[in-house]
Write a structure and sequence with these properties.
Structural class of chain B: mainly alpha
Number of strands of chain A: 0
Helix content of chain A: over 70%
Largest sheet of chain B: none
Radius of gyration of chain A: 19 Å
Shape of chain A: globular
Strand content of chain A: under 5%
Number of helices of chain A: 9
Number of domains of chain B: 2
Oligomer: heterodimer
Strand content of chain B: under 5%
Structural class of chain A: mainly alpha
Shape of chain B: globular
Number of helices of chain B: 8
Amino acid sequence: MKRDGWNPYLAGALAGLLAVTSAAVTTRTLGRTQLLGASTTFVRAAAAAESAVAREHVEANPYFQRNRPRLDWQAMMLGGILIGAFAASWTDRSFRLEAVPPVWRERFGNRIGVRALGAVLGGAVAMFGARLADGCPSGHGLSGLMQLSVSGFLAMAGFFGAGVLAAHILFRRQKEVV
Amino acid sequence: MDRLLGLITGVAFGFLLQKGRVLRYEKQVGAMLLRDMTILKFMLSAILVGMVGLHILQPLELVSFSIKGSAVVAVLGGGLLFGAGWAVMGYCPGTSLGALGEGRWHAIWAMLGMVVGAALFAEAYPWLERTVYTWLDLGKITLPGVLRVNAWFVIVPFTAIVLALFRLFERKGV
């Protein structure tokens, strides 16, 4: 297996250290512990987008009332991920403008429209699931398991159980994925 | 202040995600095909360090826990839906932004889809709240709480299992 970048065990351990440091710093300075998570921000983004066309409808929805559109810690963290990943890819020249992922191209061809349709449908199903489960691989997977929460174990079993099955149905004939 | 802290944490997290090479579509699908365990190595390493760190700081009241509820049908069912969509989309909500950062601009389709999914969920929520969320709802429980033991009696064996898994990955060369 070809390896570039950092050792994944080391990068992961540093991410764990970052999660703990961030939890301690936010507890001290903000008075509440912030743990890693990502999917709530997509609800706030949906509320913001829908508000532009149907404000009253959004304001009447109980789920949007709990997740109002605002730039909070998590939204800024997601923006930071974009910047950090850009910086990291720039330092070792792994930045690539890519329209269709290589594995997808091998299986479904190079048409951007096909990839876009697949990603929109997959993304919609995945996010519906993440909100139903109340978390994604960050909130349930990382933060949930760090706290030994039962819901974290249940969610991870679901994520990987269905993911392994679906990936085998879609890509099992692809000889070279990495 | 909370925005600044979020941004700093995100920049560092995004840097590590990219250097660990876990953002790419190929790495996500590779893990689901059980051929390339890079993302599991990254995630489980982060979990081990975070688990030990948080369980040291929590009794000292330097952090507080926030445990998500275990409505079993909703969490497991939602998890399965996420997994199915994840294989097609190839990103997690967090890594989609990182993938965009390293130039994989097709991640915007995944992000668009996720906003649509969140909007659909908000419409379904009033019904789900009365039904699915009430089924087998065990509340906010932790593994040490269920087993009625000190957390370290779970942390030590959990760590041992993960380390054995790492050894297996290295032996198989995945």
